[in-house]
Specification:
Helices cover 24% and strands 21% of the residues. By secondary structure, it is of the alpha+beta class. It folds into 2 domains: 4-110, MutM-like, N-terminal (N-terminal domain of MutM-like DNA repair proteins, Alpha-Beta Barrel), CATH 3.20.190.10; 126-250, Helicase, Ruva Protein, domain 3, CATH 1.10.8.50. A 4-stranded antiparallel β-sheet has the order 1-6-7-5, covered by helices on one side. It has a 4-stranded antiparallel β-sheet with strand order 2-3-4-8, covered by helices on one side. The longest helix is centred in the C-terminal third of the chain and has 20 residues, at 178-197. The protein binds a DNA duplex (14 and 14 nucleotides) through residues 1-3, 6, 32, 54, 68-73, 84, 100-105, 136-139, 142, 145, 147, 154-157, 200-206, 223, 243-246.
DNA sequence: CTTAATGTTCCCCA
DNA sequence: TTGGGGAACATTAA
């Protein structure tokens, strides 16, 4: 459910509300939500809320809680528990729910902030982006979904970015000129920042910490628009499967 | 009844 | 070692 803009939207609303609050209790309502006893953070104070790619990091004095939202995960502030509430964190003055219909999400208790993924696409320089791309040999769609290349891009923003960059999703990294690599980097930043300004995309499940839907889905140009006319040229948007994911693009604007 | 869904991970093969 | 396919995970909606 969440990609970088959605996780960023959640983090921005949660940070001022959570920072400085002490955890009173953590209750798990599903055995599958976590394997490492997040109840152990009880008594600790939230020092910061940060985004790591498409994940949410709740930093405590020692270590923190990494929230993977999976496909349908939600972090909800001061909401009553529902049938899909998988964990409930009671803090000094508020509660935080982790709801997750499909249960692909999880809570991980870590000693330190996670590492090992690719750089954040909003922070990497154009030169570094192009250099990293040059070292790979794969399809562009697959590359963007690979969290070890850059972290935070998922199926929606991969398709939208490739459309904006005029790159076919099956195009090979090897055959992409540097100019087009630089263009991809630029449109990625523009796209992600615009999506953040619109508070993310709500296709089916995503809502922010207040339970509000995002607004960027109405500005999607190809994602979920199979058969509709391309906003640039009018040709019908096509859907194929790439990297095992539904992939939307304009065959006229995104040549191979 | 079948398929697909904002994701990740593991296993197998080239 | 890298890349790619497929299955699995759990649940809903079209």
């Amino acid at each position: 459910m969440p990609e970088l803009p959605e996780a960023e939207t959640i983090v921005r609303s949660l940070r001022p509300r959570l920072a400085g609050r002490r955890v009173l209790s953590v209750r798990l309502l599903s055995a599958r939500v976590s394997r490492d006893r997040p109840e152990r953070i009880a008594g600790q104070t939230v020092r910061d809320v940060r985004r790591h790619g498409k994940r949410v990091w709740l930093a405590f004095d020692t270590g923190g809680l990494l929230v993977k939202l999976g496909m349908t995960g939600r972090l909800l502030a001061d909401h009553p528990p529902g049938p899909y509430t998988r964990a409930r964190i009671e803090l000094d003055g508020m509660t935080l729910n982790f709801d997750d219909i499909r249960q692909f999400g999880s809570l991980q208790l870590l000693d330190a902030e996670p590492a090992g993924m690719g750089p954040d696409p909003l922070e990497i320089s154009a030169e570094e982006f192009a250099a990293r791309l040059r070292g790979r040999d794969t399809q562009l769609k697959r590359l963007l979904l690979d969290q070890t290349f850059v972290r935070g891009i998922g199926n929606i923003y991969a398709d939208e970015a490739l459309f904006r960059a005029g790159i076919h999703p099956l195009a090979r990294t090897r055959r992409l000129g540097k100019d087009r690599a630089l263009r991809l980097h630029r449109v990625l930043i523009e796209l992600l920042e615009l999506a953040i300004r619109h508070r993310g995309s709500s296709i089916s499940d995503y809502v922010d910490a207040a339970g509000e839907r995002g607004g960027f889905q109405s500005l999607h140009q190809v994602y979920g628009r199979e058969g509709e006319p391309c906003p640039a040229c009018g040709a019908p948007i096509r859907r194929i499967v790439a990297a095992q994911r539904g992939t939307h693009f304009c065959a006229r604007c995104q040549r191979r």
